[in-house]
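hey so i finally got around to running the thing on that chain from the lab meeting. sorry it took forever, my laptop kept dying and i had to restart like 3 times. anyway pasting the input first so we r on the same page abt which one it is
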Amino acid sequence: MNLTFAPGSVVVLVGGSGAGKTTLALRHWPASWRLSLDDYRAMATDSEADQSVLLTEL
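ok and heres what got predicted. didnt touch it at all, straight out
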């Protein structure tokens, strides 16, 4: 897969749970370019399945 975006582009990956959004981002962009709700969830809870923290903490 060849992805090309103009400099300064904002890319939003949207899809259902398990669709591969995080995997795609990890494979194609360095950490300094990514903002992920998965990262915030990991800081707030020990459970990857805990979606409630996204609603209460943000």
